[in-house]
Design brief:
The chain contains four helices and no strands. The chain is mostly helical and about 110 residues long. It has one domain. Helix 2 runs parallel beside helix 3. The longest helix is centred in the middle third of the chain and has 18 residues. The mean pLDDT is about 80.
Length: about 110
């Protein structure tokens, strides 16, 4: 998804610090949920450091599992932010993702 931006900026993504979770890789190269939480936490701590007092941060997060949302909540709290429950929005896409469509399951 970053190909256009990389071409425009003339710089490619450093995948060593990419905040993703996947099942591939072994040992130190495995991109685990704990690694993801550490990377997100580091980014949020930097946001906290540079924001003015009483500043706000908008975070867009997309994942369908409660465990990943809990992980992000822990990283947010550890960085010193508070989640304003009044401003949380849930997006109901109304249709399955491409991955869901490719899985072979059908909706009735």
């Amino acid at each position: 998804m970053s190909l256009f931006h990389e071409a425009w900026l003339g710089k490619t993504t450093d995948y060593a610090n990419e905040a993703v979770v996947d099942r591939s890789g072994n040992g130190a190269t495995r991109r685990t949920a704990e690694r993801y939480q550490g990377l997100i936490g580091g980014a949020l701590r930097e946001c906290s450091r540079v924001l003015k007092d009483e500043g706000w941060l908008s975070l867009v997060f997309s994942n369908s599992t409660g465990a990943m949302w809990a992980l992000v909540q822990r990283a947010v709290a550890a960085a010193g932010f508070q989640i304003d429950a009044e401003h949380i929005a849930v997006l109901d896409k109304g249709q399955r993702s491409v991955k869901g469509l490719a899985s072979g399951s059908r909706m009735s």
